[in-house]
Amino acid sequence: MSTFIYYQLYIFLATFYGGVVIGFMYDIYRIYRNMLKLNKIIAIIQDVLFWISISIVAISVLLYSSDGKLRGYSLIGFILGALLYNLLLSRIIVKTINKFLNTVKKIIYNVYLKMKEVFRSIYKAIIYPCKKIYSALNPLILRIKRIANIPNQILEEIKKYSKIIFKKK
What we know:
2 domains; 92% helix
């Protein structure tokens, strides 16, 4: 075979690999979208970013393999790569990643529950004595507030009666 055919085979295999990468990226994006349910505007922005990233991958593959030339066998390579990935590997990879993420999620949730229990115990250990001290000191605090308010009451009474006394002449 001539070097031209090897070159075309290289381009085809590179674009086939690019199709596999694009299929994998789509699976990751699909898992991400299922995990986070966001509103429509953010979903549209994420879709645009996804298509931009896929375009970057496709253009990079074309630039490195065929100096950016798009041929029919390049398109067939991308399509076949994505199609075969979707038929053969997609389910296995999605299940594996979902199991991994669910395991991580369970671990994080269990750690959260333990931390919540510890903080609740610390909170109770701090708040319970404070409530007891406050309930014991509350009558004393109210008396002190009443006593501290006596000068203000006296001044108010003086102002009130001084107006009456000074108006009488």
